[in-house]
Write a structure and sequence with these properties.
With 642 residues, the protein is α/β, with parallel strands linked by helices. The chain is 40% helix and 13% strand. It has helices at 6-11, 28-48, 64-77, 103-110, 134-147, 184-190, 209-213, 228-236, 260-263, 267-270, 282-296, 305-310, 321-336, 372-386, 405-423, 429-442, 450-471, 498-511, 528-543, 577-588, 607-624, and strands at residues 21-25, 53-57, 84-88, 90-92, 122-123, 153-156, 178-181, 203-206, 218-222, 254-259, 362-367, 390-395, 478-480, 515-519, 553-557, 571-575, 632-639. The strands form three sheets. The protein has a seven-stranded parallel beta sheet, with helices on both faces. A seven-stranded mixed beta sheet has the order 13-12-11-14-15-17-16, with helices on both faces. Strand 11 (362-367), helix 14 and strand 12 (390-395) form a beta-alpha-beta unit. The structure holds fructose -6-phosphate (F6R).
Length: 642
């Protein structure tokens, strides 16, 4: 996608609510490459002029792909960092270089160790300076930036509190480098890198908002739907220290670079009809009608011409006026609802989401972790089994890192005791003591030892098969793919490889499914769902010319975090109160993921609660549109790969 210059952006009618130059790209990869190239051009320009290039750098997940491209440019295209002086935004207070969670470690790991920057040109606030010297150290940091003539370029991410650097709500526009206490939400968001929330430092040293605003050029990044709300507040909201990122509205050369998911709530994307002429595709009409019905709090069939006119939607009213549009929309949503996710045998399927034939389908449910199947589509899964289809479940990853160490220890101890009981002899201490030691030591290791991973993986396998048995599918239809990209023993995973794709491909070829269900949820904080989905897409792409694939349809479901917006749902499967209870029990079978999981994320409800709340909410939204009232609903979107 081409960049939109600030000048061009400021002339567009659709961006009239935006106070920061915002550029939306298809995905984070594409956008990161463009940002990296801007930085590279600046470095080269400064090199030619024999000047230092002063870069302000950020950590976190947002800039990683930018750094990856910079490393590639260094290795393959001769980009040299010898004239670069870097200043990092922030550092946790109390962490040192050796701590894998420290930002100094992060920067070396993701950038500095792979390029030719001179060590003396790297500057990162010192998280280990004695408390009483902190204020002086902060002043020196500011002075050092000034001594280089200020920052030429500042790269930023944004926290969901609206922080830039660690300038949490309450930070002032003229704040300088200082110690700060982290917001609770930031601690929750960053907890994934630590053992638990209690281990996240509560304080940090950060450049101030004023320091950032003095940079000559600022680029701020946001990826994923988790950031959509704060992006809207920052770009379209009032400037306020409650959302420190809004102070960027004051800067004369700032660009907000985001992917489509992060842009979702911008007015021009969410409700484009409010900011100008739009091309009324069927999809946009559906989105607008759902929005209108929710806004005026009326079911679709009660919307009037006036409602459409008052909300800048008169363009979609044709000759038949609101009556005709309402009927068409109502029928569309009505036809998305089916209690027969595998198709209703011997029934007219012209207005149903799925085909009637074959009546008995072969189905693969791909589940990124061992539990996404029941958490995200447990009601539909149950119906598919009950309606006689041959349902296979494929757990794409072992999910091993999400098992707590105490749980691992308990199981290893149980295995030892059971062995002693069953064999009537003492277990070999050498075997078990080694394991116990590894489990204990593993907690402090950056990479979890392979044996410990194995135990954790076995625990999750046991839970998954128990849930499948409860639903009534034979063990032979449960597949553990243990995709290699996941087996790094740490939160950070490898990119998708050909071996991963081959494993997925083999299973599809073996089963020749009529339906594939895949997790289309890109809100997973660790990106595992994204890689798992890419793996399925790649496998299907390689197989699409096979004859059996002509009969195969793919349905995407969403994970524990979000549902598809109602206007995008193409198959809505109602869940009865009894089915919802069964779904809950199946989720409970995943005991290691109950009662405070390792990667809880920002939501402290348990998975079964999140999932029930979400499914009830979807049912409620259908009800409010004037459709039937169900206990709960699971939503799916069809993915066309032909
Ligand atoms: C990092 C920093 C933070 C992050 C922000 C977003 O140095 O100062 O402001 O940019 O918390 O983090 P990610 O990118 O992980 O979502």
């Amino acid at each position: 996608m081409k960049r939109i210059s600030r000048k061009e952006w400021s002339t567009l009618e659709s961006t009239k609510f935006e106070k920061i130059h915002s550029e939306v790209f298809t995905d984070a990869e594409e956008a990161s490459v463009i940002v990296a190239h801007e930085i590279a051009a600046l470095i080269r320009y400064k090199t030619e002029k024999n000047e230092k290039c002063v870069l302000g750098l950020a950590t976190g997940s947002s800039p990683i792909k930018v750094y990856k491209e910079l490393i590639r440019l260094h290795k393959e295209e001769g980009l040299s960092f010898r004239n670069v002086v870097s200043f990092n935004l922030d550092e946790y207070y109390g962490l040192a270089k050796e701590d894998v969670q420290s930002y100094i470690y992060f920067m070396h790991h993701h950038l500095f160790d792979h390029v030719d920057i001179l060590p003396e040109n790297i500057n990162i606030p010192d998280g280990k300076a004695p408390f009483e010297f902190m204020s002086e150290a902060c002043t020196q940091y500011e002075e050092k930036i000034e001594s280089y003539g200020g920052l030429d370029f500042q790269l930023l991410g944004i926290g969901r509190t609206g922080h830039i650097g660690f300038n949490e709500p309450g930070s002032k526009i003229n704040s300088t480098t200082r110690m700060i206490t982290l917001d609770h939400l930031t601690i929750q968001d960053n907890a994934f890198a630590f053992d638990s929330m209690a281990d996240v430092p509560t304080k940090a040293v950060t450049m101030g908002v004023g320091t950032i605003l003095k940079a000559k050029r600022v680029v701020i990044l946001a990826w994923g739907m988790k950031k959509a709300e704060i992006v809207k507040k920052t770009v379209e909201g009032e400037m306020s220290s409650n959302v420190p990122a809004t102070f960027l509205q004051e800067h004369s050369d700032v660009s907000f670079v985001m992917d489509e998911s992060a842009s979702q709530q911008l007015t021009r994307i969410q409700t484009p009809w409010l900011v100008g002429e739009c091309e009324w595709t069927d999809a946009l009409k559906r989105k607008a009608v759902v929005w209108l019905s929710q806004k005026v709090n009326k079911p679709i069939l009660k919307l009037t011409d006036r409602h459409y006119n008052d909300n800048s939607m008169s363009d979609i009213l044709g000759e038949g006026g609101s009556y005709a549009v309402n009927i068409k929309m109502f029928n569309h949503f009505q036809h998305t609802i089916t209690g027969w996710p595998g198709g209703k045998p011997n029934a007219d399927d012209s207005h149903r989401p799925e085909r009637a034939n074959p009546a008995k389908k072969r189905i693969i449910i791909f589940s990124p972790h061992p539990d996404d199947d029941v958490i995200s589509m447990g009601g539909t899964f149950l119906r598919l089994v009950d309606q006689g289809h041959e349902v296979h479940v494929a757990y794409q990853t072992s999910g091993n890192i999400a098992v707590a160490d105490h749980e691992t220890y308990r199981f290893a101890e149980f295995a030892k005791n059971l062995y002693e009981y069953a064999a009537g002899e003492k277990a070999d201490d050498k075997v078990f003591d080694k394991l116990f030691k590894q489990i204990k030591a593993g907690a402090n290791k950056e990479v979890l030892p392979v044996e410990v991973r194995k135990i954790k993986g076995l625990i999750r396998r046991g839970e998954a098969i128990s849930a499948c048995r409860y639903y009534g599918i034979p063990d032979s239809q449960v597949h553990y793919l243990d995709l290699p990209f996941y087996e790094t023993g740490k939160v950070e995973k490898n990119p998708l490889g050909t071996a991963d794709v081959q494993i997925i491909k083999n299973l599809i070829e073996e089963i020749k499914p009529h339906q594939i269900y895949a997790a289309g949820d890109l809100a997973d904080p660790h990106g595992t769902h994204e890689v798992c989905l890419k793996g399925i897409f790649a496998a299907v792409d390689q197989l699409k010319t096979e004859k059996f694939m002509k009969d195969c349809w793919m349905w995407l479901y969403r994970g524990a975090w979000h549902e598809f917006p109602i206007d995008e749902i193409e198959m809505a499967v109602p869940i009865s109160p009894e089915e919802l209870l069964k779904k809950r029990v199946a989720i409970w079978r995943h005991q290691s993921q109950k009662d405070g999981v390792v990667f809880q994320g920002e939501d402290d409800r348990e998975f079964w609660q999140r999932s029930e709340d979400r499914n009830r909410q979807t049912a409620h939204e259908y009800d409010e549109l004037g459709l039937a009232e169900y206990e709960a609903v699971e939503g799916f979107v069809r993915h066309h790969f032909m």
